[in-house]
């Protein structure tokens, strides 16, 4: 059975770490400066349900070096599980923060994923915002499975570029599975940020901040992309609420029984 690390909790069996923007960004940059090969997942309900439904994906998530609560339901879940004051660590906000810190600390970054148009605009946007940022690598892979030979070539190109932080925008579960396969081969900290490429490039609009804060981002995205996202939000979100609610009730009941038992022993 997977055990939660100190400062983390298991949500439907998937580990989610108690962290913050400052903590996550500092870890990423510190690992990058040490030359580590690691991967970071910005997790949403979609990740949690994919992990619940597929044990192999649960392993992918639980072996990540850092799993941030990207979605508000996971933030609320951490709070319910005893992580007081937990805040969101959202991929589209974490990405520019890491880029800013990388610019200040002279750490080269790269971008892998997104459409060619989104990637081109994203690179231009980050260079405009952070003129000293070294973008050593940027590539939009084809929308298909790559052969082992193609993946080996990509790894070689990433390593040859000198990028030490590599943002991955392939979408879940593809990006997490790619990062797990590449850990140990790619000499960089890989950060899976999903739709951040589209949001930061302006290809897609983000939900207003007030909707994000109230956990309504899913509704905004569903109304804009119903055909692509209906399964994720209409099918998976209610299941998460039911399953995670049952988990919280079980854990609270277990804590209550343990407390009663301890009082009995102390008498």
How would you sum up this structure, described in words?
By secondary structure, the chain is α/β, with parallel strands linked by helices. The chain has one domain. 57% of the residues lie in helices and 14% in strands. The chain has helices at residues 21-33, 45-53, 55-62, 72-80, 91-105, 116-129, 148-161, 174-182, 196-201, 209-213, 217-224, 226-266; strands spanning 8-11, 14-17, 38-43, 66-69, 109-113, 135-139, 165-169, 189-192. It has a six-stranded parallel beta sheet with strand order 4-3-8-7-5-6, with helices on both faces. Strands 1-2 form a two-stranded antiparallel ribbon. Helix 8 (174-182) links the parallel strand 7 (165-169) and strand 8 (189-192). Helix 2 crosses helix 3, helix 2 crosses helix 12 (226-266) and helix 11 packs antiparallel against helix 12. The longest helix is centred in the C-terminal third of the chain and has 41 residues, at 226-266. The protein is globular and about 55 Å long. It starts with 7 loop residues before the first strand and ends with a helix.
């Amino acid at each position: 059975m997977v055990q939660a690390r100190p400062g983390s909790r298991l949500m439907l069996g998937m580990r989610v770490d108690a962290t913050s923007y400052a903590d996550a960004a500092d870890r990423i940059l510190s690992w990058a400066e040490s030359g580590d090969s690691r991967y970071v997942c910005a997790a949403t309900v979609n990740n949690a349900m994919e992990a619940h439904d597929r044990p192999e994906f649960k392993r992918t998530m639980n072996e990540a070096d850092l799993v941030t609560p990207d979605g508000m339901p996971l933030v609320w879940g951490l709070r319910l599980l005893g992580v007081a004051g937990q805040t969101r660590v959202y991929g589209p906000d974490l990405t520019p923060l890491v880029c800013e810190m990388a610019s200040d600390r002279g750490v080269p970054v790269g971008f892998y994923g997104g459409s060619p148009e989104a990637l081109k605009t994203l690179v231009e946007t980050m260079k405009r915002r952070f003129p000293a940022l070294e973008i050593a690598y940027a590539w939009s892979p084809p929308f298909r499975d790559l052969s082992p030979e193609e993946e080996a070539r990509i790894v070689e190109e990433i390593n040859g570029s000198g990028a030490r932080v590599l943002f991955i925008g392939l979408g879940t579960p593809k990006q997490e599975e790619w990062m797990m396969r590449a850990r140990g081969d790619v000499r960089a900290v890989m950060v899976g940020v999903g739709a951040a490429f589209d949001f930061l490039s302006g290809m897609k609009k983000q939900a207003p901040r007030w909707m994000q804060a109230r956990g309504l981002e899913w509704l905004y995205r569903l109304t804009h992309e119903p055909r692509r996202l209906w399964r994720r939000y209409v099918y998976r979100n209610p299941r998460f609420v039911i399953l995670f609610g049952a988990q919280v009730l079980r854990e609270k009941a277990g804590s209550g029984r343990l407390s009663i038992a301890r009082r009995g022993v102390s008498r």
